[in-house]
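Folding Task

Wanted — backbone structure
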Amino acid sequence: MKLLNLQLKKTNTYLRLFVLGLLGAFSLFLAFYNQTNCIGASADTSNYCANLNITVTNTSSNQVDAPVRVPFVSSALVNQNYMDSFGSQIILTDSNLNDINFMNQNLTGTEAAGYWLVAPDLDTNVANVFKLFLGKNDNGNATQWRDNGFYFYTNDLVTIPYHVDFNLTDNIKINSDVYLSNLSSWNCPSGVPSTDTAYVFDRHENNTGYALGIECEQQTLYNFVEIQGAKLRTPVTSGFDTRYNLKAVYEYPNINLYVDNVLAASTTATSTMTTISDNVKIGSNLNSTWILNTELIKNTTSTNNVVARYNFDISDLEETYGSSYAGTVADVSGNNHNGTYTMDRPQTYILNVGLPTSTGFQNFVINPESDNQNQAVLNADLLTQGTANQYFPFFPFINTIANTSGLPSQFVFGGLFTFIAMLVGSIMIAATRQVTFGIVGFGSILYLGQIMNFYSLWFPLATLFIIIVLYGSSKLLSEGF
């Protein structure tokens, strides 16, 4: 302590306590600023940087699992680091922080992308409040996966144009991941035996072709497969809002139906399969049902045999903006069997979307698109400024001030670090009674801002030059030559 000429005992007591308190507060901030602070939420809302309220007033009689369109621009969310390139980093909850399902499409679109909020219960003529949490950060890694899926309400449909590749014969597999939302949206005829039939993957006509689907009869839901007029079915046992795998395998003459890779039913075909020239239809007559993915495979015992696969990820669905809510669906198998979708979803809702607000300290967390250190180059010239270090605490808040004020970001960050440098320099002068130590502390803080690329090297050098000239002039004037 004597070597550095520190004289803390002679420093004002309140000043010393203030410095210690400031250091303690800063240490606590570094320890907790990116930790969970949504304790008690049934949905994991930790580490999200912002949330906004969505208020929906239902003016129709449709209350159960009705899709409500919330207009956001996905590309803007990606650019602001609220959502990554996988469409993740966002969750939706009700006012009690219970998870709410939603689907979206058109990741790179410049118009409203069409987020579809699917609430299990949407009361009529009251304000139903939901929370959208944005910008999740897990240790700087912003590449979390979210399985988007396609929500089929009542008359929604995906159509794949006819192609000879779909003319399969006696060795095929249809594989899908699905889950059902409720029973009330199905007609489910009772009394006179009849069925309410819907199709997950359909390429059949009368007693020709193949199809995989779900149907309801006598208030009971069934999974089924139909091959050349032979139908095989088994009751749905997975429950609602529970994802399960539905798979049909046809290797003439055997027809097998699997649920979660367990054989549920089997039968034999009465004749070999003949071809038709129909389109493929996905989701025909499905009611409040999610298809997360579906694929068609030929020659089930060989490899590289996928005919078509549809993941329904956010980047696979490109919307043609309009009242019909139509768009395109990408075939991710590489065989270019792309299709189109249409949605019949009357929007009889009054919608109010609030502005994003902070979620505790998460407001100061940024999600960089890539994990880089953003260090300044040591041999850079005086005017070069690299990419700002977005990991710096409070960076989003300060950067927003710079962007909205119209001032250059270097000016804002330079002013902030100059103020901090003055505080540090003053404290060091008060502690050591040496102006030289104050100048060293002042310069160190300014250089810290430069190596984090908040401003160019000329700024700390020019500021230090002015400080040293002023100090040297005062010494010369007071003590003479």
Q: What stands out?
A: The chain is about 20% helix and 30% strand. The helical segments are 13-32, 74-79, 395-405, 409-432, 435-451, 458-479.
